[in-house]
Amino acid sequence: MQSNLPSKLVLLAATSALAGCVTTSAPDLPRFTGKSSELGFSAATQPATNSGVTEVQRKPAMVKAELWGQLGESERVSILEVYDVRVLPSDAYGLIIDAQGQDQSSAGTNTGAALGGAVASAAYLDHAFRGGNSYSAGAGLAIGLLGAVIGSTMDRPATAQYQFRYTVQHGDGEIAYFDELKSSAFRHSVGVCILTPSLTLVSQQVCKQTEESLRARYLAKHQAQPLEVAQQEQSPKSAQPKH
């Protein structure tokens, strides 16, 4: 009778695993889709550079597409000499005007471990007291723990999951909804400027950008630099005393 114990243990392990499968199932996750394009921008056309010439690192700049088209060719070239421009279509950015959230976190389960240990202990007791077999408390405990370990593989840990729905007003005034699924309870605030569909936070100046602010921010400073250099070059000559 003792020789049948290994085969019974194998059967017991399979029974415990099946018990865990029957009692435990994976959580149903909400369907979430998103575009794979890079932040919704299209790169601005840049002037060609000579081969072998090291390019100067340019500052990043985001410009609305409708404003970029209103600039003259010379103005665009002047900006591209200093800035790495990304032209944003009207549906690639917007203001969050509403945000709603839902806690979809789930608690962990231990049903598989409990049931696996119980089935293993019951099977060992049935074997020990049938046909004159001896019972060992240590062996019974070990079998119960083995069943619990096997059953625990079918349990699932606790998960933190939150879903947020943002109402976004695009640059052209159109309204769109975007869903975000994450493990943190922190979300974007209403009124902030974001890129879509990535929901990346950007400067408020992007959403508030006008033709006047665009020229003041990217052209006025750039055009003022040559004038300052010219004034500095002329000032030493004017300061020389007359003979």
From TrEMBL:
The keyword Signal applies. It comes from the Bacteria. Residues 1-19 form the signal peptide. Keywords: Signal. This is Lipoprotein. The lineage of its organism: Bacteria, Pseudomonadati, Pseudomonadota, Betaproteobacteria, Burkholderiales.
